[in-house]
Amino acid sequence: MGSAVVLARMREEKASKNDIADLKPAFAMTLAEEGLTLPYRVTSWAALPEGQKGEGKEGSAWYAGYKGTLLDREHPPGEESAQDLEGPGKPRVQGPHPVPGPAGHGHGGGHHHAAAYALTGDPYNYKAGVDFFARLHKLGVIGAVEPKVTTAKFERGEVGIFINYDYNLLAWRERFPFPTEVVIPQDGTLANGGGIVAARNAPHPNTAKLFLEFIFSKYGQSLFAKAFVSPIRPDVELPKEVAAKFPPKSAYAKVKFVDYRKEEAVSEALQKYYGETIR
Question: Which is it for strands 189-198 and 255-257: parallel, antiparallel or unpaired?
């Protein structure tokens, strides 16, 4: 299920049918503000970065459990900035799916915010992000827009650049038999967290608490890293063999974390503008 579907179901079911939910942080915050998450602080609360945890109505808590950075995956390599994608003769791109997408995913909005940040320095200048992808569509650069993430067209060589999160791109690189390069756009990009909450009326509340404790322990966080997913806790380092497969730390210098409140504040306007601009 996409994040929008998870949010809708949690509301409809009064957060009583499931123990744990994974959804975009802005929606996790919304559930906490509506009192639909468990009022429980993990023992590692202080180790979690500000902006990646919070409390809402009657102590309802929300968390970001991991993070990903929007990058490019290329075959063959070469483009290193957002603006490099514009112009005739450029490699075809698998771009962000429609916002919010048939399944209600949040990734599409993140792509547009990242483009806006790279081009203007303001991630929430959503028109700049949408206009950028509209220009790519007009130039014929966008070779695929998939509501469900699939690598089929990339594997067949129909698109040369795949925009997605680092944890997906790095995992795919391990699987594909042909050489690719994972690139962080040097004019800037965004990191986004993955929201994790325990349901307010969880059928198994103590199990939900134990799960949160496990996920936010150093050991639990290190398991994310084995799948190229960056732990949210800054005191948990990537294993050396995993870190060696990431782009160098210096390449992440212009990466900025999404402000979830600002992202949600422009979400509706972004979706409307996307529908009017890209058809």
Answer: parallel
